[in-house]
Amino acid sequence: LMGLPGLGKTLLVDTLSTVMGLTAARIQFTPDLMPADILGSEVLETSDDGARSFRFIQGPVFCQLLMADEINRASPRTQSALLQAMQEREVTIAGVHHPLPAPFHVLATQNPIEQEGTYPLPEAQLDRFLVKIDVDYPDRETERGILLATTGTEEASAHQVFTAEDLMAAQQVVRRMPVGDGVVEAILDLVRACRPEDEGAPQTVRDHVAWGPGPRAAQALMLTVRARALLDGRLVPSVEDVVALARPVLSHRMALSFAARAEGVVLEDVIDEVTARATRIEAAA
Hints:
alpha/beta; single chain; globular; Helicase, Ruva Protein, domain 3; 9 strands; three-stranded parallel sheet; 2 domains; Rossmann fold; 14% strand
């Protein structure tokens, strides 16, 4: 979740943990945060008989929903501590593999990189996030509702409607949804067209994009278009779903070249142009 402070990103993640019935942990990322503060560490213990041994103390990553608050305020070394956990659902400490609880999810909040005291996330870590969602300022009516709901004597509280088992069952339903060949081809055409070295890439990508999305982008699109269709009451995703999810899935998996940034090129505009070309449907503004 990318956005300025005070837009409810932290509250959203906290509410999700309550609604989904998941064990949650929050890590406030700061410049002095160390990898052991996330993963845990081994401590040397002395027993009553004088024998010494190491005992592993689990870090906050051992939960079902990990909230990484202001993740880009920590150094790249600390951010990289999450790489194995996000991909393999386990962490390795002193050569020993420690599996994480199931299901395991990481939801991170991030301040715009132009703000002071922030670090860009490593590309390998960005690629492990399913989507990047920009949280903008609310419109007037929404902000009015927030103002009235949060400044009175009582505030509404979330309650649990799911369990961890329900969530994993729902995820399996999404994976079992059929996807038509037209949607599969649209996903492949879109992802491959965003790679500047691909022979099918349009000129705008060759001119402005430094590096494009990898196979995880196509995997993310396959899963998210199914989820979007299911939430919309449809049992089969469409190309329109691919268009709608192109920005959230691709924007953190590709980067503009230095020359393109100097010219004021906007990455989202490039994605929209490529999406319209790859799907033959006018991309949403």
